[in-house]
Amino acid sequence: MSAVLRHCLAPWLLMAMLVAPQTQAEPVAGTLGTVGSDTMSGLMLRWGEALTRQHPGIRLQLQASGSASAPPALVAGTTRLGPMSRPMNEAERRAFIERHGYPPRELAVARDALVVVVHRHNPLESLGRRELDAIFSDSRYCGAHEGIHRWQQLGLDWPVGSIRLHGRNAASGTHGLFRQVALCDGYFRPEINEHPGSAAVVAAVTLDPRAMGYAGLNHLTPGVKALARRDADGTRHYPDAEAVRSGDYALSRDLYLYLNLPPGEPLPDAERAFLDLVLSATGQAVVEELGFVALPEARRLRQRRELGLGDAGR
Amino acid sequence: MPDSLPPSPVRRRLRQGRDRLATVLVTAGGIGVIAALLAIGVFLAVEVVPLFWSGGDTQTVSPRALWSPLQAEDDLAGYRWDPTATLGTEEPARVSLLPLAWGTLEAAAWALLIAVPLALGAAAHSALFMSPRLRSRLKPTLELMEALPGVVIGFVAGLVLAPWLERHLADGLAMLVLLVPGLLLAGALWSRLPPRLQQALPLGWAGLWLLPWLLLVLAVALWLSPWLEAWAFGGDLRQWLEVRLGLDLAVRNAIIVGMAMGFAVMPSVYSLAEDALSGVPRSLSEGAQALGASRWQTLWRVVLPAASPGVFAAVMIGAGRAVGETMIVLMASGNAALMTWNPLDGLRSLAATIAIELPEAGPDGLHYRLLLLAALLLFLFTFLVNTLAELVRTRLTRRYRRLGGVA
Predict the structure, then answer these.
(1) What is the mean pLDDT of residues B169-197?
(2) B359–A66: do the CB atoms touch at under 8 Å?
(3) Domain limits at A216?
(4) Which of B385, B378, B264 is nearest to B332 (CA)?
(5) pLDDT tens, A45-99?
(6) CA B350, CA B100: separation in Å to the nearest integer?
(7) Which of A228, B69, B142, B183 sits a CA distance of 20 to 30 A from A135?
(8) How many Cβ atoms sit within 10 Å of the Cβ of residue A136?
(9) How confident is the model over A179-226, as pLDDT tens digits?
(10) Taking residues A149-169, what's their average pLDDT?
(11) Is the pLDDT of residue A29 over 90?
(12) How many cross-chain Cβ pairs, A to B, lie less than 8 Å apart?
């Protein structure tokens, strides 16, 4: 069997697979390729498994090399689905419109948050906006007057000494988001230990009572304590599901799925099946299982209606 | 026998052709390697050019930003590496490569400081004093250490050694301080032993029978360390360092990196130096000893100078590896781009920066080109170190050739 024959046949077979379900009520089949965020890779993997369980013909192919890899793949047309842990920026959006003539379809599929963590025995409970900025930045654009370098400056007798800072490496979306939201677009202090993953940050803080770090919500372990965020009037917002979903906890964000969908056209079947699952109660249960937070119910149903998925969404 | 007959013209031409083909292939291979090396350098240099000069509207980085400190009020001033925050914005670029170069050299210096004395000591001992049987076991074992992947060493150093040392700093210091007197004491005791016992513990096997003694010294150090800490540092070494010397201790610091990388560099330095030392002709050292030199004098005055080109090459190869090593620094250093003399602070090396940031720096962007510049710098570092090593080595070889030394 020559490769030539296979090459000639493959497109036709693929066409047949895609066309068939539309003509008859056959089960959906095909391969969904996705390129994007590594924060969401676990999530996509679990959704893909659930999808194959519902529709044995569909497989989800995952390439998780960072949020920044999604827009180029969407522009080049190598994928139609791009998971991203941050919204597309203006340049990325413009490149997409230039190539395709219409904007990408943006879907929020889950809520996530950044948590500031300390050792589990550390007595600290909460930090204000300015305090957090004064600890992690040397620019203090949020308005603090002087930097906080030692635990005594936070009014604690223990731990003693300097605050040892841990964070993500500069290329990650987590690093970028923390800089924007927590540092008021300022600059990180150079003393911060940069780790290649959120799990490594949490591990470092677990071992050291004098450490403080930031990480993704889904990496929380019993070894560390997540700090509450204190408002100007003194109310504390812990990063619990409720505060993250409503956005009361200021360091929360959406996780997105970007879609190459020409306006007016219906969703292709495989993608329709996938989005139906993601925005269903089952799909959102997976979100919670992995340590993220499910979308607010109203928002989930609104997005379903906009995509023409029907209201069922079990 | 066909070979003894004069070969027929056809066969002779065939053989000549084969010879010529082999020559061409070998030459092509040699030139190919050199060309590839040059091509890497040229590629990096060409890719870096648009960083500074561009024809169109794309942004550039001023060379000043790379080498000079930022001019700003108090906390923001200094040498900073923070490319993602500032590239492509109106803000002054915070892309100084100096902290990275500093981190690279600092890590390599600590690694050599730890590895070279140990490796050369071990090489001299095993080449000159050790019993041949023990040596034939020890050398392959030490060379096997070289096969340990850097990731594994970095992992152990960053996740096991660093937290332990941070909690037991005084223990570590006590062990280090008591080790030297402990070994000297062992030597003194041995020379006082009755001859019968000395024969039972021959010097050539010292590497083996000293092990229990070493363990004993370490145990004593552990047992004594609380008292030593209380006596010398007022009960808390970390606080003493902070209050008295103004030194702040980071969990992952330059010393940890030095220890881990020293461990990685040691086997190759040892192996090359040992080859050089044991290659010194026996006649030289025997002659020296016949003239009344002690073993120690023979080592210092005769064997070491004769083997110096090889020993020097061994050290420089260690230096080259330490400068280019990536994973150990990445995992054991904390990757904080600092420029301090404090060996208890973190550091960040060029190689680790490239490894961390290149996957997410978009192709053809400023950040990407900056990282290529870092790569070019790293390439130049290792190139210089190796060239220097080769130059000094040939010099020394020429000088000591008349002694019958080996390279």
Answers:
(1) 89
(2) yes
(3) 112-252
(4) B264
(5) 999 999 999 988 888 998 887 777 788 889 888 888 999 988 888 888 888 999 9
(6) 5
(7) B69
(8) 28
(9) 988 999 888 998 899 887 888 899 889 988 889 999 999 999 999 999
(10) 89
(11) no
(12) 85
Residue whose C-alpha is closest to residue B146's, from B234, B236, B230, B272: B272
The minimal CB distance from B82 to the residues A172, A188, A195 is found for: A188
A187 and A91 assigned to the same domain: no
Task: Tell me the CATH number at A173.
Answer: 3.40.190.10
Cα–Cα distance, B369 to B202 (Å, whole number): 61
State whether A204 and A124 are in the same domain: yes
Q: Is the dihedral of CA A124, A130, A136, A138 positive or negative?
A: negative
Contact residues on chain A for B159, CB-CB shorter than 8 A: 203
- For β-strands A81-84 and A126-128, DSSP reports them as unpaired
* Closest by Cβ to B337, choosing from A147, A190, A196: A190
CB spacing of B80 vs A193 below 8 angstroms: no
CB pair distance less than 8 Å for A171 and B80: no
Residues B167, B225: Cα–Cα separation, whole Å: 13
The helix (run of H) or strand (run of E) holding residue A127 is strand A126-128
Q: What span, in angstroms and rounded, lies between the C-alpha atoms of A31 and A43?
A: 18
Residue A224 lies in a domain: yes
CB A213 within 8 A of CB A227: no
Q: Which of chain B's residues have a Cβ under 8 Å away from the Cβ of A170?
A: 82-85, 356-357
Task: Please say whether the beta carbons of A112 and A85 come within 8 A.
Answer: yes
Contacts of B337 in chain A (CB under 8 A): 190
Contact residues on chain A for B348, CB-CB shorter than 8 A: 194
What pLDDT is attached to residue B56? Answer: 56
Tell me which CATH homologous superfamily contains domain B98-403: MetI-like (1.10.3720.10)
Q: Which residues make Cβ contacts (< 8 Å) with residue B173, sequence separation at least 6? A: B225, B237
CB pair distance less than 8 Å for A187 and B359: no
Mutation target vs B (from A187, A189, A205; most B CBs, 10 A cutoff): A187
| Residue A13: inside a domain | no
Q: Give the model's pLDDT for residue A15.
A: 47
Q: What is the pTM of this model?
A: 0.81
State residue B296's pLDDT score.
85
What's the rounded mean pLDDT across residues A247-251? 90
Q: Which residue of A has its CA nearest to B99?
A: A190
Closest listed residue to residue B380, CA positions, set B44, B56, B26, B35: B44
Residues A120 and A234 in one domain: yes
Every domain of chain B and the residues it spans: 2-51, 98-403
Question: Which residue of chain B comes nearest to A38, CA vs CA?
Answer: B360
Share of chain B above pLDDT 90, in %: 28
The residues, ordered by sequence, that sit 6+ positions from A174 with a Cβ below 8 Å of its Cβ are A39, A85, A114, A168, A198, A214, A215, A216
**Could you tell me which of A286, A279, A270, A271 has the C-alpha nearest to residue A50?**
A286
* Cα(B366)–Cα(B84) distance, integer angstroms: 10
SS3 B374: helix
Q: How far apart (Å, rounded) are the C-alpha atoms in residues A192 and B92?
A: 21
Say if strands A193-195 and A164-168 run parallel, antiparallel, or are unpaired: parallel
Q: How many CB atoms lie within 10 A of CB A78?
A: 11
